[in-house]
Write a structure and sequence with these properties.
Strand 2, helix 6 and strand 3 form a beta-alpha-beta unit. Helix 3 runs parallel beside helix 11. The chain is an alpha/beta fold. It has 11 helices and 7 strands. The chain has a domain at about 1-180: Homocysteine-binding-like domain (TIM Barrel, Alpha-Beta Barrel), CATH 3.20.20.330. This is Methionine synthase. Its cofactor is Zn(2+); methylcob(III)alamin.
Length: about 325
């Protein structure tokens, strides 16, 4: 959606960063500071299409990811402003349609480092990032998102569960320090037809790795289209005590990295999730426009969400 604005390097910089020493075009998170009207407009378009939840414009909003642009010092501001923009739009829609409240999920992306694997094939023991470095970065991001008014936190596009564990640990620290409760969604990414995350976990292994945390939902997003995601949703749906979420891409990208799947084509595939009662929360990732969300929102009107299983009670051994 932001690519449709065709922002130039100067647009990305705005007044605040007009003399920045390195190129910043492509740093979409900073648009929350330099082009806040566009960010608000995108959120409004999705709410208008029927979305109940939008994500903040903070997918790369950690010091780790912002290091690519030398903008580590602006991480708090990026997240805080992103949350404020989304929350303001959400409140406006909730006031207009109180029977359909709108919510904001603070997006916490995977970063561009992996804690489980070496980036150097010649040195498999090397790690470019530590658990504690990730925890510190995620904690800063989560604090800013909460200060900006998000309703829940979304640890998403997880290709390395150890990274996600650092984020979840940081969130638990904040909850304890502030004496608050905040719903947390977790969404992994199955990277290819192997059915595994990049760090090698199957869908079931991924679920087992995070299910000790108090989560609102667990599920998958990105990488695959709706049809390809179905078998992995079946796995977590059958084994999870949490709500199950899915927001696939609008199909697979073409040779130019663009997404050709129409709204109706995507909705037709998501109908399988509904017919099988696999999900509680559904939406779209890469390539998903408000037209796609509108088609999905209309589709789900006639369906009940997946029934939540009763939590298993374990008896203490005598």
């Amino acid at each position: 959606m932001l690519q449709r604005y065709k922002f130039t390097e100067e647009d990305f910089r705005g007044e605040k960063f007009k003399d920045w020493s390195s190129p910043v075009q492509g740093n979409n998170d900073m648009l929350s500071i330099t082009q806040p009207e566009a960010i608000a407009e995108v959120h409004a378009n999705y709410f208008e299409a029927g979305a109940d939840i939008v994500e903040t414009n903070t997918f790369s909003g950690t010091t780790i990811a912002m290091a690519d642009y030398g903008m580590e010092d602006y991480v708090y501001e990026l997240n805080y402003e992103s949350a404020k923009i989304a929350k303001k739009v959400a409140q406006e829609f909730t006031e207009k349609e109180p029977e359909k409240p709108r919510f904001v999920a603070g997006a916490m992306g995977p970063t561009n480092k992996t804690a489980s694997m070496s980036p150097d094939v010649n040195d498999p023991g090397f790690r470019a990032i530590s658990f504690d470095e990730l925890r510190t970065a995620y904690k800063q991001q989560a604090k800013a998102l909460l200060d900006g008014g998000v309703d829940l936190l979304l640890v998403e596009t997880i290709f390395d569960t150890l990274n996600a564990k650092a984020a979840l640990f940081a969130i638990e620290e904040i909850k304890e320090e502030r004496n608050i409760e905040i719903p947390v969604m977790v969404s992994g990414t199955i990277t290819d037809a192997s059915g595994r995350t990049l760090s090698g976990q199957t869908a079931e292994a991924f679920l087992i790795s995070v299910e000790h945390m108090p989560l609102l939902s667990v599920g998958f997003n990105c990488a695959l289209g709706a049809k390809q995601l179905t078998p992995y949703l079946e796995v977590v749906s059958g084994k999870s005590n949490f709500a199950v979420s899915a927001y696939p891409n609008a199909g697979l990208p073409n040779a130019f990295g663009e997404y050709d799947e129409t709204a109706d084509e995507m909705a037709a595939q998501i109908k399988t999730y509904l017919d099988k009662q696999l999900i509680n929360i559904v939406g779209g990732c890469c390539g998903t426009t408000p037209e796609h969300i509108h088609a999905i929102a209309k589709l789900v009107e006639g369906y009940a969400p997946r029934p939540l299983p009763e939590l298993k009670k374990t008896e203490a051994a005598l």
